[in-house]
Amino acid sequence: MHSVKSLTIFLALTATSHAQQPLMVEHGVYQVHSLLHAIGTEEYTVSDLRDGRRTLTTTSNINDRGNTRTTVSTLTYAAHFEPLAFSQQSPSSSADTQIASNHATIKEQAETRTLLKPAIAFPGTGSMPAAMQMMMMRYWSYHHGPSRLPILRTSPQALALEIKLVGHESFQIKGQIVRLTRYTVANLMFGREILWMNDSNRVAATMTFAGGLPQEEVLDEYESATNAIFHSGVRQEMLNLAELDLQVPPEVSGTYAIVGARLIDGTGSPALENATVVIKDGRINSVGPWPAPPGVRVIHAEGKTLIPGLWEMHTHYSGVEFGPALLSAGVTTARDCGGEFDFLITIRDAIAAGKNNVLGPRLLLAGLIDSGGAPAFGNLNADTPAEGVRLVDLYADNHFEQIKVYTQLKPDVLRAITAEAHKRGMTVTGHVPVAVNTFQGIDDGMDQINHLQFITRGMRPEGDVGPVDLNSQRARDLITLLKVKNIVVDPTDGWGEMAGHPKSSDAASFEPGVNAAPYALASKFRAMGVPATEEAKFRERMAENLKIIKALYDAGIPIVAGSDTGLIGYGLDRELELYVQAGMSAMAALQTATLNAAKAMRLDDESGTIQPGKRADLVLLNANPLENIANIRKVDKVVTGGRMYDSKKLARTVGFSR
What secondary structure does DSSP assign to 182-247, as a single string? Predict the structure, then answer.
């Protein structure tokens, strides 16, 4: 009897225990890509808590160029996908939201906010996993697809999401036709994300173009259709761009004269007061102190300063929203240093055609090549010299101006790439691969170098990580080599400042553009930085960088300004401010983003200065940048290819308040 009684108790306890355990009701795995290169997975599970609630748990494991990170997100929800609690933990950020019947308490990093809960609202962050967005879409759909879905964030400046059904399409997967519905999601991050849902109400894929570097997530069962889905996304991007284009038509085009401005023509000549610049058919027709020709429309610019259109020499053009943002900052030419091939050539060609009002700067492209495997950047990789030659030819055939080499390339592959690029009339820029030092990279054919860190490393003895001695033989030898070979350097010092500043300092204290950026973008930059304990190290590094930039400038080494993935438009402004802090004159700093850049790209015969016959790319400022380089931020009008736009109107199309 005793044994039977014990067994009965055991079975009863076991049954009770099983009854209380969550029951898994849904599971899936997404492949995560950056620039279409697989960098990890996101795995999700939906469990029934058997008390009227369910929980979604997602775990993302990412290895991006050797940097690994794990992000865990959890959503607890009631009937009809009504959210009750949300949390997200990653190595660099945390978020936690608790939702009661009439209020919500939200924590993100060190910020907390409690608010009355809107009748319809969903929790989230700017980096919501695909599965979390799946629940968001189910919630939105249950509530009949409202035009605006409030997102619960710590700041009241967070705009409601705008989710739009934009199309239906079919893809062939494993011999079967699969139907997906395409949506755009605005205000989750900068730019409009593209998202596909299947007939089972699961997210099949997401594509984020403008939230930083492009990223794609594809549910396992649709992985074979990744390229087809991506091409659909590019087509949608161009539809998005057409919507933006309609919002800001040019104020002036054709033939007209800008009269009365202070002219800084970019050649290094002194400013010319009360100048007249005549523009005709997209070109500069005449420049001088004389009146406008009779019958020509006059744009009065008294009290303002006219400068050449700015060149952003290091961007990753990751969405059509970049176009209005860059133009509003006075950027009329931008060099992309590694993006998604099909998107880049599509947007470049649309802008270059000039037949319609396409909002974006002229795009110059540096085709990215890295070595294969998990640490690679992008999906066009070369592990052998022959593969390197093939990729150079692919880029050359598609009219890329440069090749951008990257970190994992082997020396023989690097040499094959540079030789073929030079044969095809292209120059080579990029990272110095880890397999060679800076001296060897130049010997192997590199014409330009992105990022000051590769100059700094080259100045130190091999393996040394201490301060750079600019008087050392090695540093002097490198400066001499850079000068003799006319190597162009793109320091991207502003990006180092943004990513490496102590979090105890508000990013807006040195980059005021953060205050003008849309919340989804501003919050990303405000969250950047290192612990306050590393402030001294940060300041030492920044001071050393400025000394090296000044040494390069004094030696006559060509420097061009680029912001990398800094705050769009404003990041270039900050780069110029740092060059002046380093000891350059305001004129010299301005030329790094005008004439120097045009020379580096072999286009100085038709751009980079305000001279007759050149492209009509100009910027009208409300203050003089030669008096204070920060005045470069005070853009009033921008002229690209002869079409004049209002800076503020351009900015507003993508959420900036310039």
Answer: EEEEESSSSSEEEEEEETTS-EEEEEESSSSS-EEEEEGGGGGGHHHHHHHHHHHHHHHHHHHHHH
